[in-house]
Structure formats: structure tokens, C-alpha cells
Design brief:
Elements (H helix, E strand, L loop, with lengths): L14 H17 L7 H8 L3 H7 L3 H31 L6 H21 L1 H15 L5 H23 L6 H19 L2 H8 L6 H18 L2 H4 L2
Length: 228
């Protein structure tokens, strides 16, 4: 199980204050857009004076940008190993369909476990999902650093699974479906409520969700039935 460790860190004499502000901001931005989030609410949750936000970060927009950068760091850290393994498969003289399908499943399961068992990551994921639907200027950072590399990697692996016979559009669509499976579950109201309360899904319910999503993934990667 992935531990609920935090990537929110800071250094210097004011490190503790900065960390409190960032944690409070993550809570606020997970539930509200940058426009809808309230800086005074962030200050209140962090237990600091409102002026402290400007002093340490410059304002609400700058805090949001810092949250975006932390989000990128969080997910790049978890995906770096998988990207390297994917690169070796993709660049192989004879790419293995079995290895490609296995790696997609591993990445898929890692993401499910991460999002449902790490509260901080789940909140960051909600922010990413909102950026996909209602992009702000911060979207370009997420797109360049996360969305595009992940989509290209998954789509390339999917095409290998299908023997390189898919068009770019077909591979891309299958990649999109895979990447949105977890997101469709994450945006459910019950999950958001659990996140805001700092709770996790029970192991039994998590297993049910994981098995259903895994079954759907297997259907997407089922070459025989897809070509029938």
C-alpha cells in the first residue's frame, strides 16, 4: 500500500508557516477553482494572518501555481520508473505486446492505489481534473510536464499491444479511455466528501472498485475481441 506521505515541504525559519499555508491551499483548491477559492479561507485554515499569504507567496495565484508545481513533482516521482520501462519497451527492436500490456496494467493499478490511499495525491488529482475541463494559465505546465508525456506513453504501449496496427487516432482514443477510467470514479461526490474529511475508502470497497476498473481495462486491451 502506498503511504500517505506528504510532498509539501519547505525550508528556512518560516518553513512551518509555508507548509501550513500550502496544505490549507491544497484543501481549498481541491474543492474550488482558483477563481472560487478564497484566500481568507486559506489563511483561516492555516491559522495565519491573511497578510502572511502575500508575504510568503505573493498572493492566491502564486500559491495556486506552487500547488501545481507540487502536483507535477508528486506524479512525476511516481511515474518516472514506469516511463523508463516504457521507453525500453517502445524502443526495443521487437517490442513485446505482453510486456506492454503488463506495464499498462501496473501503471493503472499504481494510479488507483495512489489516488484512493493517499489523501494528498487525491486532492491534487481533483485539481488536475478541473484543469482539464476548465483550464487556467497553469494548464500548460500540467500539459507539458504530465498530460502529454503520459498520454503519449500509454498510447504507444497500447499500439504495441495491438501489434502496431492501430492508427494514431485509435491508439490515442484507447489511451484516453484508460486515463479517464480512474478519473470518472474520483469525481464522484462521495469520494470528494471522503477526501475533504481526510478519510480513505475501506479496503473492501477499494478492492471492488479496483476489480471493476481492472476488468474494464482488460476489455480495452483485449486484441482478439476488439478485432472480432
Amino acid at each position: 500500500m502506498i503511504e500517505n506521505n506528504s510532498i509539501i515541504r519547505a525550508e528556512g525559519p518560516a518553513a512551518e508557516t509555508k507548509i501550513r499555508i500550502l496544505r490549507a491551499a491544497l484543501d481549498e483548491f481541491a474543492l474550488h477553482s482558483p477563481a472560487g477559492a478564497r484566500s481568507r479561507k486559506i489563511a483561516q485554515m492555516a491559522g495565519v494572518n491573511h497578510a502572511a499569504l502575500c508575504y510568503h507567496f505573493g498572493g492566491k495565484d502564486e500559491i495556486y501555481l506552487e500547488i501545481i508545481k507540487l502536483t507535477v513533482a508528486r506524479f512525476k516521482g511516481h511515474y518516472s520508473e514506469y516511463f523508463e520501462r516504457a521507453r525500453r519497451i517502445i524502443e526495443s527492436a521487437k517490442p513485446s505486446a505482453e510486456d506492454a500490456a503488463g506495464l499498462i496494467r501496473e501503471m493503472f493499478m499504481m494510479q488507483i492505489r495512489l489516488l484512493f490511499n493517499n489523501t494528498e495525491s487525491a486532492k491534487m488529482f481533483l485539481i488536475m481534473r478541473r484543469e482539464e475541463i476548465y483550464p487556467t494559465p497553469a494548464f500548460e505546465i500540467l500539459f507539458d510536464e504530465m498530460f502529454r508525456p503520459l498520454h503519449m506513453t500509454i498510447s504507444s504501449l497500447v499500439n504495441i499491444v495491438f501489434g502496431g496496427k492501430l492508427t494514431c487516432m485509435e491508439a490515442g482514443i484507447r489511451g484516453d479511455i484508460i486515463l479517464t477510467l480512474v478519473g470518472n470514479v474520483m469525481v464522484k461526490g462521495e469520494t470528494i466528501n471522503r477526501i475533504s474529511c481526510g478519510k480513505h475508502l475501506g479496503e473492501e470497497k477499494f478492492e471492488v472498485i479496483r476489480n471493476i476498473l481492472a476488468d474494464t481495462l482488460d476489455k480495452i486491451l483485449d486484441v482478439k475481441n476488439s478485432q472480432a
